[in-house]
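README: folding subset

This subset contains proteins for which both the sequence and a predicted structure token string are available. Records are stored as plain text. Below is the entry for Coronin (496 residues), shown exactly as it appears on disk.
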Amino acid sequence: MMSWCPQYRSSKFRHVYGKAASKENCYDCVPITQSVHDNHFCAVNPHFIAVVTECAGGGAFLVIPVNQTGKLDPHYPRVCGHKGNVLDIKWNPFNDFIIASCSEDATVKVWNIPQHLLKQSITHAQKELLGHARRVGLIEWHPTASDILFSTGYDYKVMIWNLDTKESVIETPVKTISFHTDVILSMSFNTDGSLLATACRDRKIRIIDPRAGTLLQEASSKSHRVNKVLFLGNMKKLVSTGTSRWNNRQIAIWDQGDLSVPLVEEDIDGSSGLLFPFYDADTHMLYVLGKGDGNIRYYEISLEKPYLNYLMEYRSPLPQKGIGTMPKRGLDVSSCEIFRFYKLIPMKSLIEPVSMIVPRRSESYQEDIYPMTAGVQPALAAAEWLNGVNKGPVLMSLRPGSVILNSLPPFPEESSPEATEPVLYRSRMAETTEKPSRIQEKWGNRRAEERGQGDKRTMGRSNGVDAFESPPPKTENEPPCKSTEGGGIVERPKLT
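--- output ---
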């Protein structure tokens, strides 16, 4: 059923447009995997882009510095410790130098990526998780608790792992959820990570309490065969993509409290490629990309009918096999960029960044399109979350010059399981007068060097991330990237 739309609807995102990076700002000659598995095959953070690659005799992926655009050396080092094809990769949301991967060899591995360029291939993982009986198809990091990783495999089980341990090989997960009856195709957390939604090949959407391992809600729609599912931030709703009974590609919106029938079902087209949904909770925008298409459709989600409001479509003749997305803290706020995709285009061995931009005349910081957003500090330690504490993400500002990443995380107060509001930063004055908890001490040590350089580095920072380390993709008219670190100007040589 097509959703009803008023003829005119006011929205600050009505004219958002997609802008592909110029050829020299793409990543060329990248041997992208030929696997037919329905995953993203790409993970991005402000420092690195990771992509699953073709590899003889095992599974491997590449980790390329974000600013190293142009042609890739054919002998570029790989991360290659798996014995089977790599099926999924995900960066740790709280540490840009830790990445998890899962594989057909039934293992999950956690890797430590050196802060400098890879000089040689990495074959030894920091941690290896052995619990699944069959290949592992999906992994997800917990959105607010540090060192908690979820994995699911072709043994139909979801396993929860606590990585906050000295053991390098972990054979027993802290929890196993085993009531699914088929392969799990998608996993998604709500904002504070207290609920997990799954989409399964048995056509059912399930909402699960992951710590208790209990099933809270289950939905199966005869008119909607689900492939991917996402929580829509704090809107108490879910979105799923799949196909209708007539094999049209379809988007459905669900009420989190009542999964008996979708609130709305919207047919997209009759193509066969899987639809990947991406939701931006800051702007309430939903992006939908089809595997094998070049297009990106985007919608605005509202609390009232029609819930799903079509905005525009970015069109490209280059079909994507997989996709990566940059976290909000890595975007270029000076050009009003609100989302950035990295399209994997195997037919050209190319990774193409595509920026979604809100057209604005003013060059000043646009407060209304950049609300406080999830930062890099965890709200909870692994043990706290496992013991039943819920907390929303620690928020940060994207205002240029902000040094919020250099400050200590906030000190948690006594929290009940219902306390799910986002955690905001306090002033530094208040921080120094309180006793740090275990997670603050850990973060204090990790960030000590950055804090020591905080005042010196402020000028060279954009979004709290060093502008020299992680520049956004440049347009053709933009001058070469310069760094003002140390008072001088350093031009980065172009990579070919």
